[in-house]
Amino acid sequence: MPAHLTLHDTLTRTDREVTPLDGQTLRFYCCGPTVYGPAHIGNFRTFVAQDVMRRVVEASGTPTLHVRNITDVDDKTIRDSQKAGQSLIDFTQGWTAKFHTDCDALNLLHPHIEPSAVAHIPQQVAMIEKLVAGGHAYAAADGSVYFRVSSFKDYGKLSHLEDRELLLGASEAASATDSDEYTKDSLTDFALWKARKPEDGENFWPSPWGEGRPGWHLECSAMILEYLGEDFDLHSGGVDLIFPHHENEIAQSCCSTHGKFAHHWMHVAHLMVDGGKMSKSIGNLYTLEDLAKRGYSAAEVRYVLISGHYSAPLNFTMHSLDSARQALQKLAKADKALSSVSPTLQHSNTPGLFQDAWDTLLKDLNVPGALGSIFGTLNKL
Fold first, then answer.
1. Helix/strand/coil (H, E, C) string of 65-79?
2. pLDDT band at residue 168 under the 50/70/90 scheme
3. What percent of the chain is modeled with pLDDT above 70?
4. pLDDT classification of 164: cutoffs 50, 70, 90
5. C-alpha angle 335/338/339, rounded to 5°?
6. Domains 18-268 and 271-349 share a fold
7. pLDDT of residue 338
8. pLDDT tens digits, residue range 18-63?
9. Please, which pLDDT band fits residue 2 given cuts at 50, 70 and 90?
10. Integer Cα distance of 123 and 125 in angstroms
11. CATH code for the structural domain at 271-349
């Protein structure tokens, strides 16, 4: 069987083997949740795909170091904590605990390290200082600090966007998240440090540029540097993070260190619901709790989330949950039958009967192909 898992790399647009830079441990980072409410099944599609990837790598004999962050300070967490009448810490810790409960229900492996943004403010300030000293960032009159995109010639390579598209994307991102975009030198520049505003309440920290808080993009770069270093094996997240979040991570990380940053990029496609986009206003933004009230288990949800290839959009329906229930029942029945015939086969690490499924799985994490192979084998028994 192939020695290593191959995954599509967003940066090079090629399928490449996922191998450790140090020849020993695969070190990878996943963008975690913003904890201002319950995570929905669209969020969990990404986390489940990452979980399967990690399990395959470890089953292949390669240890992993899995880092996944918690975003516990941003516009949304501050806004909603104030609405709830709670401190930012109490509010985000409550939703972090809920996220962990859902992860356990979905049988997700715990990350080895789960750093939070608030706990790493000093590291973020230190990174900004390096960027300012190197001419890659500048302070605005209000005390905010922005990354100078024009200082990084490779900006846009991950998202494969041209200058005009970058400007359009930056404009859309700014209109959605920044009310202070006019303090920037260029529309494409993005915030590293946001000056304190009245609506921030007590959620601010000291810095050389005045009181404020870090920008959203910076936290991942700072925590990656802290736990994985300047160069690491793989970075993963949803396709919606490619631009601007991951593009900005690359820029600020490469300009503050001498490293290449991530050597492989894995992105998970959107989850659709009944053929359309998930939306809170439409009422199809499902959580595990919502689906449990309809009688569906987390195991059935997990099965649906892996039933399509991670790099292609997946359509979620209630019928797909019913199909997942039937598939899981069939697998459980087969597992019981195989264990009665050969208990050693049931717990063997050798693919054996399912060699074809394993080989298929190693080719760009083709879970639906592997499942098809497994059921094909079971039908022949």
1. EEEECEECCCHHHHH
2. low
3. 91
4. low
5. 85
6. no
7. 85
8. 999 999 999 999 999 999 999 999 999 999 999 999 999 999 999 9
9. very low
10. 6
11. 1.10.1160
pLDDT of residue 305: 99
Count the helices and strands in the chain (H runs, E runs): 13, 14
Q: Which helix or strand (DSSP H or E) is residue 315 part of? A: strand 314-316
Strand 64-68 and strand 26-30: pairing? parallel
Question: 322-349 burial, b for 16+ CB within 10 Å, e for fewer?
Answer: eebbebeeeeeebeeebeeeeeeeeeee
Residue 342 has pLDDT above 70, yes or no: no
Q: Are 45 and 305 in contact (CB under 8 A)?
A: yes
Which tokens go with 75?
């516009």
Phi, psi (deg, nearest 5) at residue 114: -130, 80
Handedness of CA 44, 50, 53, 55 (dihedral sign): negative
Q: In the block, which residue shows the tokens 């599509």? A: 8
Q: What sections of 144-269 are H helices per DSSP?
A: 163-177, 216-227, 247-256
Q: Which of 266, 318, 301 is nearest to 39 (CA)?
A: 301
Q: Which helix (H) or strand (E) holds 235?
A: strand 234-238
CA–CA separation, 294 vs 148, rounded Å?
Answer: 50
**pLDDT for residue 104 is more than 90:** yes
CATH T-level topology, domain 18-268: Rossmann fold (3.40.50)
pLDDT (0 to 100) of residue 165:
60
Note the Cα 176 to chain centre separation in Å. 21
Q: Where are the domains of the chain?
A: 18-268, 271-349
- Does 244 sit behind a cis peptide bond, omega within 30 degrees of 0 on the bond before it? yes
> Taking the alpha carbons of 176, 177, 181, 186 in that order, is the dihedral positive or negative?
negative
At 1, the pLDDT band (50, 70, 90 cuts) reads very low
DSSP H stretches of helix in 208-354: 216-227, 247-256, 288-293, 298-306, 318-341, 343-346
255 exposed, middle or buried (CB, 10 Å; 0-12, 13-18, 19+)? buried
pTM of the model: 0.93
Strand partners, 15: 8
The pLDDT, as a whole number, for residue 176 is: 45
Angle between helices 367-380 and 318-341 (to 10 degrees): 50
Neighbours of 182 (CB within 10 A): 9
The single residue listed with the structure tokens 């009688």 is 295
